[in-house]
Amino acid sequence: MSSRAEIDELRCSFCDKRRGDVRRFVAGHCAPPYVYICNECVDWFEKVPGESPGAGERRCSFCNKPLGEVAKVMAGPSDCICNECIDLCKGMLDEA
Ligand SMILES: [Zn+2]
Ligand SMILES: [Zn+2]
């Protein structure tokens, strides 16, 4: 059973804000373990230069692409997201 309170306790994988504290939340779809990104981090991605891709064996936590194959990457404490997934998330955020 997942109550509204439990959903509000989910945290953004990048800024660690709680679901209940941000406007929108997008869940990664290729997990588990599930990754989430909030609308604030999606906006933030546009403003940061991004990590240099191709670091070791890391893959995008959302689409599982090797980071060497994407144009731009934002890395959180344990997860990362590529520019292509940010575009998808933006589309989802714009819809509702
Ligand atoms: Zn966030
Ligand atoms: Zn990706």
Q: How many distinct helices?
A: 3
Class by SSE composition: alpha+beta
Mean pLDDT: 84
Roughly how much helix do the residues carry, as a percent range? 25-40%
Distance between the termini: 25 Å
Secondary-structure element sequence?
Answer: HEEHEEH
Shape: globular
Q: Could you list the spans in which at least 5 consecutive residues all have pLDDT below 50?
A: none
Rg computed from alpha carbons, rounded to a whole number of angstroms: 13 Å
Fraction in beta strands: 5-15%
Count structural domains: 1
Q: Ligands in the structure?
A: zinc ion
Question: What is the makeup of the main sheet?
Answer: 2 strands, antiparallel
Count of DSSP strands: 4
List the strand order in the largest sheet: 1-2
Give a brief description:
Helices cover about 30% and strands about 10% of the residues. With about 100 residues, it is α+β, with helices and mostly antiparallel strands.
What tags apply to this protein structure?
single chain, 96 residues, alpha+beta, two-stranded antiparallel ribbon, two-stranded antiparallel sheet, 3 helices, 4 strands, 28% helix, globular, binds zinc ion
List the helices and strands and how they pair.
Elements: H1 4-8, E1 25-27, E2 36-38, H2 39-47, E3 73-75, E4 80-82, H3 83-95
Antiparallel strand pairs: 1-2, 3-4
Bound molecules: zinc ion (2 copies).
